[in-house]
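Appendix B. Chain record.
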Amino acid sequence: MNSYNNEKIFNSFLIEREDKNSPFNMQVKPTMLKFMGNLKNKNILDLGCGMGHLAKELHFLDAKKIIGIDISEKEIEYANKYHKESNIEYRILDAQNINSLNQKFDIISSGIVVDYIEDFDTLLKSINDCLEDNGLFVFSQVHPLSTAPKEKRKWLQDNDSSYIYQLSDYSFEGKREMPYFDGTVTMYHRTLSTIINTILKNNFEILEMSEPIPSKEELEIFPNRIKNLHKPSFLIFKLRKKS
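Structure tokens predicted for this chain:
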């Protein structure tokens, strides 16, 4: 069963995505939207659209057509109920089957999804096939430094209360059972070199990368997020399909 059909995980995810002060909304989403650029008259596929929060925002940024796909029936049901617009279509579809859409897109976006998929190579090949020439793939994922430890990630504090992250298992790629609010989700850890080499192998050029950290304003509201200055939580790419 898809983890996000679980009631507790679903509700926790909903709260996180609707909280304007969540790390995703304060650090990840602004960078993704910046990387996507001018959306006017663009056809966009939101891969792993969840409950439709990003798709709805793309609508307000004048995208021509948005298709949001997700494997979770529960999330698509919510998206259709609360985030439907005339130019948005939601479908229950595994991200690995996007070729079945038989469409080409100007931009494909994906917010914290690719690290839930074991076969990154095949996924990137399918995404490349579904993009127009020079089309963009903008995606975010949990940072490999966070997915690396096989056991629960632990922070230490030294005598002056500085945060120290205990990194382990970085070079051991593969499945990870990651704690997520009221449950556990299955993710796949890959090293940064594997991520980049797989991108280059699949006919993409890397235009920009980001490891977002909290702004000064965010740290004033959430001082504990100073930990992200020592270890970023997210990794974001802007890729362009080579013509």
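Further analysis of this model is presented in Appendix C.
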